[in-house]
Amino acid sequence: MIRVFSTYLYFNQPLTPEVLRQIEAAELNHLEIFAGRYHFDYAERASVQQMADWLADRELHLHSIHSPIYLDDESRRRSEHPISIAEPERVRRLEAVDEVKRVLEVAEVIPFRYLVQHLGLSHELFDQRKFDAAFNSLEHLCVFAKQRGVTIALENIPNELSTAANLLAFIEQTHLRDLRICFDAGHAHLEEGVAAAFSVLKELVVTMHLHDNLGDRDAHLFPYEGSIDWDAALKAFGQKAGELPFVLELKNHGVAEPLRQAQEVFRRFEIALAAEPR
Fold this sequence. Notes:
alpha/beta; TIM Barrel; eight-stranded parallel β-barrel
């Protein structure tokens, strides 16, 4: 198991050296940065270079970036303009592709391995036109990413485009063989179930998002605070659990010491995995 911490916990504030210092002090040395210009201005070269310097100073390693899901407004705070590479309307789709390319260009300064990408928006219904639009977007983005040493990992999210079965069908039907999967356990719990969804996607899974909920909404609770049976989930991951990055992608619902609690979650995962028969 590779410990990775997502900056999603701090998404509503700038990602500053002090935040990075706190993460490093908690011995969470591998990061996934959640892309939003207010949080981390990936579109400004000077900002990207500054982040590269901060990470080097802290000896932190960038594992992945989560592709943006909203365009920031002029104040650089989250707007209500969603980004979707599955948008059938061409102009808006191209805007989304351009924004994702700006994130991928970060790899020219700060190497990272995976770009986590949503297929459509939360709670979208299935529409073949959206699948076709996503293919048009990803056909280009996969080449752009590969040129920069990045693999695009599609994430299962709560919508009909991104069920485990539909993600697998999309990759098989489009023959975009460079695509991989970021398996999100919290989202799977809201849909097919963790074990069922993982069994469909496991051959393509290269990174994981781990968080919890009560089965009613995408709460991004700390594992063991919701209704996911984590012992069963870890068992379902099988031998892949030892080699996969476990990315904690959490919201802070009033937790006093979230980084200390993140450490405790990783410790519990490691104890549970060590107890699993080989």
